[in-house]
Amino acid sequence: MERQLAFRDYMIAHSENAQKYSDLKRELAKKYPDNIESYMDGKDWLIIDRKAAEWRKIC
């Protein structure tokens, strides 16, 4: 739960990254409409997730 809250708060505080993430998700959904595994593999959530965790420690 903490990870999800950190991710949410990070996205709120970093709107440019939130927009890039949103654009990426739309692009992947169009590219892989019937393949959730490829869609999930294409997201850079892990990188953003780590940034969010570090950001939360600083705040």
From TrEMBL:
It comes from Anabaena sphaerica FACHB-251. It comes from the Bacteria. Pfam families: GrpB. This is GrpB family protein. InterPro entries: GrpB/CoaE, NT_sf. PANTHER family: GRPB DOMAIN PROTEIN (AFU_ORTHOLOGUE AFUA_1G01530) (PTHR34822), GRPB FAMILY PROTEIN (PTHR34822:SF1).
